[in-house]
Automatic annotation (TrEMBL), chain A:
Keywords: Cell membrane, Membrane, Transmembrane, Transmembrane helix, Transport. This is Sugar ABC transporter permease. Signal peptide: none annotated. It is found in: Cell membrane. The lineage of its organism: Bacteria, Bacillati, Actinomycetota, Actinomycetes, Kitasatosporales. Pfam families: BPD_transp_1 (PF00528). The chain crosses the membrane at residues 21-47, 82-102, 114-134, 217-237, 269-289.
TrEMBL record, chain B:
InterPro entries: Bact_solute-bd_prot1, SBP. Belongs to the bacterial solute-binding protein 1 family. Residues 1-19 form the signal peptide. The keyword Transcription does not apply. It is found in: Cell envelope. This is Sugar ABC transporter substrate-binding protein. GO terms for cellular component: cell envelope. It comes from Streptomyces corynorhini. It comes from the Bacteria. The lineage of its organism: Bacteria, Bacillati, Actinomycetota, Actinomycetes, Kitasatosporales.
Length: 299, 422
């Protein structure tokens, strides 16, 4: 290699790097201005008292101390966890079940797959309003049906403190399962057919094939789905806001809603930022644990 | 050659994206092409709220050099949207204050311009609803309409012979409602409809017993809650849960003729007038004074003035102030009285115009209803108002849906207001 060769090589490399940067630059600038900077801003604001007009006043850990005493925070944390505990496994199971069913050669399988995906692309407000009608305690078809099959006192759904959260979970599972089903379908198609043949030759029944071939083959997909579901469950806002507005009482108040109320509605941006920070740390911790478990199971 | 164009393309994309990111948000020009000053007014449901059109058209006719541009926001989202706009430094000139609670929030945050000198010039003898806008001796908004609650009734179901509607107590009202309820299933007719808002129980109790909604001591709610729950249980009023989950609208159910009486704000009259004119309903309705807790013959109700305020960041502040002043004065009052809206300024001429509106009930009962002895504020203003509002709303829902007994609900309200609000 001559000297001039290596300089051209260097120059080309630098040139390539620049071109590469210039391709991601527009996107990165947008991301930095609209996401990255506000995120760091939130981090700082969490330690201030700020109403969005005055100059933020540094108050150290006061916001966090206030949070410890705030009944609304604990209620919201509990509700958000309940929602996650219901939403994550049920969506996962429903999506996996659908994917396995629709991975076979059925007539009109394309139509069915599309039908299950539809809720995901439907406007969330429409979903919430329609489910509210379906679950209406007196006139809703769901309770009419339950009465028809002999349940004299069907649940009050969104009007009852005990049933409002299950109503939200049912609606959100129905809405999300189509999306995760598509991910699982892709995962299923990546499992080599020979494995199933081999299992069949060894005398494995349908259940054993599912347990020993399908599930292990889907592990990367399941991991991805699990992480996505965890993140989306903890930041649930829109569905709750439209369907129950956190009610009845505070029975479905979730953390994102509390952040919205404290920040946008009450103008306590410092306190709202502190709650956001805590929410972020919770999600981060859970995700890290998930990554750790995944790594261990791969070994 | 190809390289250059690729590079140029990348640069162009970057520049466009940046420009798109930075541009927008200046909200257009402060003057029109023909040199008129633009005053933007944040308001709600422009198409279905006739008083806005009446005010804007009346003002523009007198001030040809000013162009009023409505910024239309969905009524249900109005408070949230304006809060977000102001937090983002929006420069919409005039902001309609839908209620005093929101007003207090905007004003105490320093988002509104002081209107002290304009208020000074008002003819206070014929002007109502101004007091709640005073904050430490200053005014940041001027009311142009002043609604208060009355009892709307369907003349086909409630006959004046059944009861003396001018002197109803709440107990009379309840038995009249039970007497009027008939049928079941889809042909069910309810004696009364209670909107799901907490004011239906709480503000009535506060206004007529003298209770304080900010006190943290809510024993005075008890009777009104028991009344409402009894009406629900007896089938004379639609269950709270149904009304809430179906998002039933008082207007729709009253206009369908399936309910005898609806306690509601006087704003309901203009909607009814309009729908009758359009032919969407043929209901024959009347208004009576709100039923009373005390039997001493005085008529006490509650209400909430609606006001205009000038944004501190307004671009055409002097013109915006001119509009606000005009709207709350005699001319603005006359303009909205003609569309059946109760103005803040109630000179004799203005009220004559109000009752002369086509289709407006003008019998003696209506005249009595529109002249209450005292109008209490729906919710007192303080920096604690919105926190207390939230708590009272949440607990109201639990009591009305039967999740908590009246006693438990009131106890919880007392406890939460004392421990959570600071």
């Amino acid at each position: 290699m001559t000297l001039s060769d290596s300089t051209t090589g260097k120059r080309r490399r630098r040139h390539n790097t620049l071109v590469g940067w210039s391709f991601i630059l527009p996107n990165f600038l947008g991301f930095a201005a609209l996401t990255l900077l506000p995120v760091f801003g939130t981090l700082l604001l969490a330690f201030t008292d700020w109403n969005s007009y005055s100059t933020p006043e540094w108050i150290g850990f006061d916001n966090f101390r206030r949070m410890l005493d705030d009944g609304n925070f604990w209620t919201a944390l509990k509700n958000t966890s309940w929602y996650a505990i219901g939403h994550i496994p049920l969506t996962l199971a429903a999506a996996l079940g659908l994917a396995v069913l629709l991975n076979r050669k059925l007539r009109a399988v394309g139509v069915l797959r599309t039908a299950f995906f539809f809720p995901y692309i439907t406007s969330l407000v429409a979903v919430a309003v329609v489910w509210n009608m379906l679950l209406s305690p007196e006139l809703g078809p769901v309770n009419q049906f339950l009465k028809f099959v002999g349940i004299a006192h069907p649940p009050g759904w969104t009007t009852s403190t005990d049933w409002a959260m299950p109503a939200l979970v049912i609606t959100s599972v129905w809405r999300d399962m189509g999306y995760y089903m598509v991910l699982y379908l892709a995962g299923l198609q990546a499992i080599p057919g020979e494995l199933y043949e081999a299992a069949r030759v060894d005398g494995a029944g349908a259940w054993k094939r599912f347990w020993h071939v399908t599930l292990p083959g889907l592990r990367p997909t399941t991991f991805f789905v699990l992480v996505m579901l965890t993140v989306s469950s903890f930041k649930i806002f829109d569905l709750v806001q439209v369907m129950t507005e956190g009610g009845p009482g505070r029975s479905t108040l979730v953390l994102s809603q509390l952040i919205y109320r404290q920040g946008i509605a009450q103008g306590r941006f410092g306190y709202a930022s502190a709650i956001s920070l805590v929410l972020f740390l919770i999600v981060l911790a859970i995700t890290l644990v998930q990554f750790q478990l995944q790594r261990r199971s791969e070994r | 050659m190809r390289k250059t164009s690729a590079r140029a393309l990348t640069a162009a994309v970057a520049v466009t994206l940046l420009a798109a990111g930075c541009g927008g948000g200046d909200g257009g020009s402060a003057t029109t092409a023909d040199g008129r000053k633009v005053v933007k007014v944040a308001l709600w449901n422009y198409d279905t709220t006739p008083e806005f059109k009446a005010l804007i058209e009346g003002f523009e006719a007198e001030n040809p050099k000013i162009d009023i541009q409505p910024v239309d926001i969905l009524a249900d989202d109005y408070a949230d949207k304006v809060t977000t706009m102001l937090a983002g430094g929006d420069s919409t000139d005039v902001l309609t204050m839908k209620n005093v609670t929101d007003y207090a929030r905007f004003a105490t945050r320093g988002q509104l311009k002081s209107l002290d000198s304009e208020v000074e010039a008002l003819d206070k003898a014929s002007y109502s609803g101004l007091d709640p806008f005073e904050l430490d001796g200053h005014y940041y908004a001027m009311p142009y309409r002043h609604d208060f609650w009355v009892l709307f009734y369907n003349k086909a179901l409630i006959k004046p012979a059944d009861a003396d509607l001018a002197k109803l107590s709440w107990a009379d009202y309840a038995s009249l409602a039970k007497q009027t309820s008939t049928g079941g299933g889809t042909s069910k007719v309810y004696g009364t409809y209670l909107q799901t808002w907490r004011s239906v129980a709480q503000a009535i109790a506060a206004a007529q017993t003298g209770g304080d909604l900010l006190s943290g001591d809510y024993g005075f709610f008890k009777d009104q809650y028991e009344l409402a729950l009894d009406l629900q249980k007896s089938g004379a009023a639609m269950p709270f849960g149904t009304a809430k989950s179906q998002k039933v609208q008082y207007k729709t159910i009253f206009e369908s003729g399936k309910v005898g009486m609806v306690p509601m704000g006087s704003w309901f009259a203009s909607a009814l007038l309009e729908d009758r004119a359009k032919g969407t309903t043929d209901i024959d309705w009347g208004v009576a004074p709100l039923p009373q807790i005390k039997g001493d013959g005085t008529k006490t109700t509650f209400g909430s003035p609606t006001a205009f305020a000038v944004n501190k960041k307004a671009r055409n502040s002097p013109e915006a102030e001119q509009f606000v002043k005009w709207a709350s004065g005699p001319k603005g009052a006359a303009a909205i009285a003609k569309v059946g809206v109760v103005p803040s300024y109630t000179g004799e001429e203005v009220m004559k115009a109000y009752f002369a509106v086509k289709g407006m009930p003008s019998d003696a009962l209506a005249a009595q209803a529109m002249k209450p002895d005292s109008v209490k504020l729906e919710m007192p203003v303080s920096d604690k108002t919105s926190d207390i509002n939230q708590i009272l709303d949440e607990e109201h829902e639990l009591v009305m849906s039967g999740e908590k007994s009246v006693e438990q609900g009131i106890e919880e309200m007392n406890k939460r207001v004392k421990s959570e609000v600071r």
